[in-house]
Specification:
85 residues; mainly alpha; 52% helix
Length: 85
């Protein structure tokens, strides 16, 4: 799981072009939106694409995205349970 979390942090930085941020700067349990990284709805779309492309996960219920993208830890848990790649 630790490996997946580090991989996710790197992918988030790359996908969202977060300059001057390293994986160590991202708190695994910190909120991704508003507080923490301060992401917005456009960033959420990028994260959805990232999960589809890298892990074969399609979000069937957009209502769950708030729960899934709460933090890097919640994303990693969801990916572990649902990945097809």
């Amino acid at each position: 799981m630790e490996e997946l979390i580090l991989e996710l942090k790197k992918q988030i930085i790359e996908a969202l072009n977060l300059e001057d941020i390293t994986p160590d700067d991202i708190d695994t349990n910190a909120p991704l939106f508003v507080e923490g990284l301060g992401l917005d709805s456009i960033d959420a779309l990028e994260l959805i694409v990232l999960m589809e492309k890298n892990y074969g996960i399609k979000l069937e219920d957009p209502g769950k995205s708030k729960e899934i993208f709460k933090s890097v830890a919640t994303m990693a848990e969801y990916i572990e349970k649902n990945r097809t790649k």
